[in-house]
Amino acid sequence: TQLLEQSPQFLSIQEGENLTVYCNSSSVFSSLQWYRQEPGEGPVLLVTVVTGGEVKKLKRLTFQFGDARKDSSLHITAAQPGDTGLYLCAGADMRFGAGTRLTVKP
Amino acid sequence: NAGVTQTPKFQVLKTGQSMTLQCAQDMNHNSMYWYRQDPGMGLRLIYYSASEGTTDKGEVPNGYNVSRLNKREFSLRLESAAPSQTSVYFCASSGLTGTGETQYFGPGTRLLVL
Hints:
The structure holds 2 protein chains of 2 kinds.
Chain A: E1 5-7, E2 10-14, E3 19-24, E4 32-37, E5 44-49, E6 55-58, E7 61-65, E8 71-76, E9 85-91, E10 100-105
Parallel strand pairs in A: 2-10
Antiparallel strand pairs in A: 1-3, 3-8, 4-5, 4-9, 6-7, 7-8, 9-10
Chain B: E1 4-7, E2 10-13, E3 19-25, E4 31-37, E5 43-49, E6 56-57, E7 65-68, E8 74-78, E9 87-97, E10 100-105, E11 109-113
Parallel strand pairs in B: 2-11
Antiparallel strand pairs in B: 1-3, 3-8, 4-5, 4-9, 5-6, 7-8, 9-10, 9-11
């Protein structure tokens, strides 16, 4: 079982700012997924990363998988209020980190 | 194509009562999951089913039972509810996509045990 640690736990920023959130483990991931969950809804998959060093971009979101496949980051450029939500990472065993709760203020 | 559906959306139980949470998916997925989500703890896996007729324990199975009735349906039963089972319960199914196994979640069931 891989234990996933996400940081920070909470993040509150102004619209237009940039931010990075992290997902770390002491074990090697075979793959890692990032989800966003909005209040009152289930998580929705954003991206899956598989290869060490991989970088994937989804509009203003950039996902990076560490070279050693033990960590991952999510960077959001010019955050918007619509980015508000809980960002979760999950390993291939379908176990989740506790998440980063992001609030973007207009 | 409804994806993953869950019933009920909300439920209030008294300690000791029993209930079954229903989940169905129409994506022809083999794997299905039940999670609970508590504040500050993310999603924790209760049980999963890799295929019709099989079920396995996850991280927090105590106090729960599951049934994989057929490929579409995966139910979660609380035989004797306890206040510690107050939570939001999510069902998910997963299938292979171009980048690996992808989970699709239902909208959740909010359970309050008094």
